[in-house]
Amino acid sequence: MPYRSTLVQIQPADLSPIPEAEAPRDCPLCPRLVLFRRQCRAEHPGWWNAPVPAFGDRGAWLAIVGLAPGKHGANRTGRPFTGDFAGELLYATLLKFGLAEGEYRADPHDGLRLTGAIILNAVKCLPPENKPIPEEIRTCRTYLEAGLAALTNVRVVIALGQIAHVAAARALGLPPSGTKFGHGAANEAPDGRILLSSYHCSRYNQNTRKLDAAMFEMIFERALQLRN
Ligand code: SF4
């Protein structure tokens, strides 16, 4: 289903609260992802099929870092976690904690607003089988670093899953080898920001009961405690 009728004219920066930290629509830096992007554009010309921009509040105190766009979620709709299984729990939790206003309808035109929170991805482009390779994570970290640098009010960064945890740790200047990942693990960055890790709210983790809503809410309760 087409979500945006003039997709090819829209740059990720046009939709982002931190435009200076966004990749261009045809970012050429990861050859494997560029090839996959071309294939997706040919198969689904009405989809977003481009680096997915950040979504949320530029004045956010809380940044959430996901892994990468899902094929039928953010890669299709152009908004992080929008239209896929993982987004149902993430947006429900943001609404429950007063970090979002409106109604989440899995559609970038649903009018949902984030207040005090912003969502970024470690890798902005859709990777085959949802698995970016280390070089792609390293390359796209330039944008993650620029995004976190632009978000001067952010106090807490929630990383969803181990890959996002490592990317966010590096972006915050933490040594990944000494930065513990675990559900609820918190690490303080050199600038005082807190990296708080969470299991990813993926379909797999929820179906296998590695993560449920109560466990996920615990992370946001902890983030609120760590805010000050
Ligand atoms: S993943 Fe990031 S660095 Fe790589 S092509 Fe996409 S936007 Fe560019």
Write the layout of secondary structure elements.
Elements: H1 12-15, H2 31-43, E1 55-56, E2 62-66, H3 74-77, H4 85-96, E3 100-101, E4 113-114, E5 117-121, H5 134-150, E6 156-160, H6 162-171, E7 186-188, E8 194-198, H7 203-207, H8 213-226
Parallel strand pairs: 2-5, 2-6, 6-8
Antiparallel strand pairs: 1-5, 3-4, 7-8
The structure holds iron/sulfur cluster (SF4).
Overview of the molecule:
The protein is α/β, with parallel strands linked by helices and 228 residues long. Helix content is 35%, strand content 13%. It has 8 helices and 8 strands. The chain has helices at 12-15, 31-43, 74-77, 85-96, 134-150, 162-171, 203-207, 213-226; strands at 55-56, 62-66, 100-101, 113-114, 117-121, 156-160, 186-188, 194-198. The mean pLDDT is 95. Bound molecules: iron/sulfur cluster. Iron/sulfur cluster is lined by residues 23, 27, 29-30, 33, 51, 123-125, 136, 139-140, 143.
Secondary-structure content class: alpha/beta
Count all strands and give the number. 8
Termini gap: 43 Å
Task: Indicate the CATH class.
Answer: Alpha Beta
In short:
The protein has 228 residues and is of the alpha/beta class. It contains eight helices and eight strands, in the order H-H-E-E-H-H-E-E-E-H-E-H-E-E-H-H.
Keywords:
228 residues; alpha/beta; Uracil-DNA Glycosylase, subunit E; six-stranded mixed beta sheet; two-stranded antiparallel sheet; 8 helices; 13% strand; globular; binds iron/sulfur cluster
